[in-house]
Amino acid sequence: xxxxxxxxxxxxxxxxxxxxxxxxxxxxxxxxxxxxxxxxxxxxxxxxxxxxxxxxxxxxxxxxxxxxxxxxxxxxxxxxxxxxxxxxxxxxxxxxxxxxxxxxxxxxxxxxxxxxxxxxxxxxxxxxxxxxxxxxxxxxxxxxxxxxxxxxxxxxxxxxxxxxxxxxxxxxxxxxxxxxxxxxxxxxxxxxxxxxxxxxxxxxxxxxxxxxxxxxxxxxxxxxxxxxxxxxxxxxxxxxxxxxxxxxxxxxxxxxxxxxxxxxxxxxxxxxx
Length: 273
Hints:
- 37% of the residues lie in helices and 29% in strands.
- The chain is of the alpha+beta class.
């Protein structure tokens, strides 16, 4: 059976009801709680504005910025790749008379010439090793290597940088002209021929010349070209120019040749199929 509240409890309830009624009457009649209500409303508004401006919007803007930057980077990378491919194609077209005079392309057929150019991009190039050591290799990724084998010419938009030596699916290993173990038959405009060795130094090859065989004249910045001997590189492509002439003995000098094409100038290359 429920127990009814005693007199003190009833008195407390009645007193509480009367006080609350008085507060309500005073608020309706005189608005004594209006400042409290205004403070509450202004505080709520401040919290909403603060959270929107300093919490929600910054987080949203950060995510938006990340997405925009990613799209911009992807677009820049795509445009850069297209530009480099166009520069490489332009190099081939500008040298088409030299290239067409060799076995590489059909005569004056630009469309067929470009169809034999396989675009490739760097996936692995140890720059530290290239700058410090004598082994200069890079690995290129191509869309397809079905029509590709070793000993193909590799170029960038500045000229010849090396040749392919190993093919593994779509991955191509390239030995650069400056590699210590590379050999390249070259000639100058005077008809002097030599087999240039990679110097193991960035953008440098060299020829040792025996002066007793014939009297020859060499000078700094004298240009050298591919001789076409060896059956890999086409004849007449500019390779570089004399950077240094070092006297090894009274009968022998060393011609150090600075290469025209820098493999560090781009991440995109072309392989002549």
